[in-house]
Amino acid sequence: MSLVIDAQVAGISGDMLLAALVNIGADKSKVIDGVLSSAGMLRGSRIQNMDFEKTVKHGTEATRLVLDIREEHHERKGLEIQDCILQVSDKLGLSDRAKVFAKESIKSLIRAESRIHGEPVESVHFHEASSIDTVVDIMGTAIALDDLRIFSGDIVSTPVAVGGGTLSFSHGTTSNPASAILEIFRGSQMIIAGGQASEELTTPTGACMLVNLASKCSEFYPPMRVQSVGYGAGTKDFEGFPNVLKLVRGEPVQRFDRDTVQVVETNVDDVSGEVIGQAIDKLVSMGARDVTVAPAITKKGRPTNMVTVLCDSSNLDSVISALMSETGTLGVRVRQSERRIVPRAIVSVPITIQGKDFTVQCKISKNGDASKHFKVEADNIRHVSETLGIPFRDANALIITEVRQKIHLK
User: Fold this and answer.
1) Can you give the pTM of this predicted structure?
2) The CATH number, out of the four listed (3.90.226.10, 3.30.70.1380, 1.10.10.10, 3.30.420.40), of the domain defined by the range 258-341
3) With 70 as the cut, is the pLDDT of residue 368 above it?
């Protein structure tokens, strides 16, 4: 199953995503009952009423979240919101994937504020996000995603409209997108664009959920047979377009994904192995997708090493520059190559080994029988190995056993 989160026109907010999931078929009663169970877990907050109702936005019928809350506090520590979300996740018995999504979403928000204000995460205070509606958006979305069994499918986002102009908040007036939005998207695969309004279109809560949900961002929909479409309405009304987030669910029709890479090659015959090793590290740090070195024979029987680098068009120049400066080569060969790749998703999986908790990143292939195959990131294995003081291969074996149980792979 594939899900496209189409935020290229009206952006994304927490309530829009939640409402769109209900519109596309999530059990409304299950979402409301689950969220209301969190009412007493955030001191000074009370949910008076919660419901979903139909509305029309610029000619498009959509679902909107109706929420009536009472707040005694207008500032809270981010960790207070996080603790509430973790408690509710455990109380509701959500799947491990849903728990990780909820936990990482609020952590993304806290980390963004920490970087902006230059303070440790323990000291971060929320203002606009201090209300229980942040808990409602994140937990309601986790419940809805679990109900629709979306975590087991491929989730793709379109480029995200963020709006323009300026906005005023607790720290004064700033240009839009606000710093929190940029920090959340920084380092992710998400592409942002201004959009059609000089107002905020994407909120921090919406952004933090999106980066922890979508496995990739694409300007085009993946090949799929459309099965259902959902529309979640935002609170604002705009003159030129409907303020709705569109979700499209469908069945993938292509066995392999396609992408295009740049292939950069050069021969080096007068450098040491240490220089080549340093060059590999530098190229990877510059964004190279892969680097291989193979022995070869050139003219007059001269031994050489052929260095081949795969990279994207966006970092081609920096990769070429690094390759030339590190190896001293006087020229490179460049060509574009189309690839066929097995669809895959990268998921965070919480595990416990020898009484210690870890979260590891797993790349899971999604193609026929290959859907049972996964690979744990080497850096995560190394971290477990060093933390527990055990060999890398032993850590790898223990992690694989734990992950198989968590994601139900046999």
Assistant:
1) 0.66
2) 3.30.70.1380
3) no
